[in-house]
Amino acid sequence: MSLNNQTHESGFTSSSLPAVVGVILLGGALGILNSTMVAVGIDRLAGEFGTSLGTIGWVSTGFLLAVTVTIPVTGWAADRVGGKRMWLAGLGLFLLGSLAAGLSWDAGSLIAFRVLQGIGAGILDPLVLILLARAAGPHRAGQVMGLMAAVLSLGPVLGPAIGGVVLQGLGWRWMFLISVPVGVVAFVLARRVMPGDPPTGSATRLDVLGVALLGPGFAGVLLTFSQAAKGTEFVSWPVLIPLVAGVVLLGGYAMHAMRSQRPLVDLRLFARGGFTASVTVMALTGVALYVSLVVLPLYFQQARGHGALASGLLVAPLGIGAAVAAPLAGRLSDRLGSRALALGGGSVAALSAFTFTWIDAETPEIRVLLTGLAIGAGLGFVGPPAMGSIYRTLPGPLVPQGSSVIYMLNQLGGSVGVAMVALVMETTTDPVSGVRSVYWLLTGAIVAMLAAAALLPAAKQGSMR
Q1: Which superfamily does 13-194 belong to?
Q2: Which intervals hold domain Major facilitator superfamily (MFS) profile (predicted)?
Q3: pLDDT > 70: what percent of the chain?
Q4: What are the φ and ψ backbone dihedral angles of 234, each rounded to 5 degrees?
Q5: What does the pLDDT read at residue 106?
Q6: Which strand (E) or helix (H) includes residue 455?
């Protein structure tokens, strides 16, 4: 049977593969670009709404937190209603959230609508991998996964630059509204091109209690950062109430998960040292990436006086470094092992972050750009090997759950990173001191990441050539 006429089990011919892959990548790119695009607008949004960075930071924190909580639910829902229906539902929610965010009337409404966007993105993100693997089949999986990695890498490169162009030329509302026409095209094409897939009829029940405990628990802990960023004393009710509530809810989830047969996130996976190392590395990678994506535009705008467009372009080397390094690291990890690449990349990222602790308003911009490029490249050599190591540390049946947990905590790390930037920048005396303090904290976080990376699997015996 010729390749052009081959029919896959998913119900479409190989000749339709490029169209299906293109439609999936178009929809998946929406959430990735939007999450990084908004990073250059944080300072502008705080001014527009007359609020603090601690509050407006929830425009990004709320989005990432919604993605985090939605990811583990998506797999269950896709089995119940089918992948195509869930994909269209995710696109619909993302479009609705984008339109509503663009029409927001105050900071609270914008944050609420960004959470709705995040729920849509939390449906789309894990389905990209599932649907691409199904569309490609085993013989083209590597080729299609390479395309996915390239698209994912474009977020930190294009997001800030596009955000700067839109913010300077059209205004802040279009940072959200621009997703609407693109999303409508993606929705129409998905309905026409993607093959229908019937539900599997999985008998697995959704862990409703887990959802009810985990999401609010994370939100409570993160709310502590924004309350402290307002200058509130730490030992005060506005700070302690969300902190205590968050800790109690997360503790309740831990007790529930250890007793449940099928919890939302199976904490028993963390008994495996290699898996725990991978999760820790990916969570701290999320912290490092989003810290830099948020704090560097603030530095260029507040300390250097640049506009949104220039700030977005000046942040681009960070993403370029990650975009170039990540695919290369993915190819090398099978031969060199996860540990060596993650330690090497993490060391470069740590040294680069430490360099930023000396930054001031007179630092040559070329030095800032090269240091940002080095941080991105270093992190690019950490993420793919850590993600790939789960295939070496978990049995096959546990890999889907493990992949979900790692990606979920990577997004949670991004949420923590954004909240941390808002807290530090609001509580320091000037922007330069704030950036330095952020990078002192980030240097410590990356050193902790290196400690976890040392526990990742080394190269398999005989794999070195």
Answers
A1: MFS general substrate transporter like domains (1.20.1250.20)
A2: 20-460
A3: 84
A4: -60, -40
A5: 92
A6: none
- Packing angle, helices 208-229 and 58-81, rounded to 10: 170
Which of the two residues, 319 and 157, has the higher pLDDT score? 319
Does 153 have pLDDT greater than 70?
Answer: no
CATH class of this structure's domain 265-460: mainly alpha
Let me know: does 358 contact 314? Beta carbons within 8 Å.
no
Does the pLDDT at position 401 exceed 80? no
CB 59 within 8 A of CB 111: yes
Q: What angle do CA 160, 165, 169 make, to 5 degrees?
A: 145
Q: Is the CA virtual torsion 60, 61, 63, 68 positive or negative? A: positive
Instruction: Give how far the C-alpha of residue 306 lies from the chain's centroid of Cα atoms, to the nearest Å.
Output: 26
Which pLDDT value is given to residue 246? Answer: 87
Taking the domains of the chain in order of start, what are their residue ranges?
A: 13-194, 208-263, 265-460
For the CA atoms of the chain, what is the radius of gyration?
21
Mean pLDDT of 49-56: 84
**What distance in Å separates the CA atoms of residue 212 and residue 425, rounded to the nearest whole number?**
32
Four-CA torsion 459, 329, 398, 17, nearest 10 degrees: -130
Question: How far apart are alpha carbons 155 and 157 in whole angstroms?
Answer: 5
- DSSP conformational letter for 206: P
Answer yes or no: same fold for 13-194 and 265-460: yes
Confidence of residue 444 (pLDDT cuts 50, 70, 90): very high
What residues contact residue 178 under an 8 Å CB cut-off, 6+ apart?
162, 166, 170
Asked if the model's pLDDT at residue 6 lies above 60, the reply is no
How many Cβ atoms sit within 10 Å of the Cβ of residue 168?
Answer: 16
Average of per-residue pLDDT across 359-370: 92
Highest mean pLDDT among 7-21, 145-159, 234-248, 442-456: 442-456
Q: Measuring CA to CA, how many Å separate 407 from each of 80, 154, 208, 382?
A: 22, 17, 20, 14
Contacts by 396-405, CB closer than 8 A, 24 or more apart = 398/269, 400/75, 401/266, 401/269, 402/269, 402/275, 403/129, 404/71, 404/72, 404/75, 404/126, 404/265, 405/72, 405/265, 405/266, 405/269, 405/279
Q: Which stretches does DSSP call E strand in 11-69?
A: none
Burial class (CB in 10 A: 0-12, 13-18, 19+), 258: exposed
End-to-end CA distance of the chain: 37
Q: What's 272's DSSP letter?
A: S
Which neighbouring-strand residues pair with 7? 13
What is the SS3 assignment for 223? helix
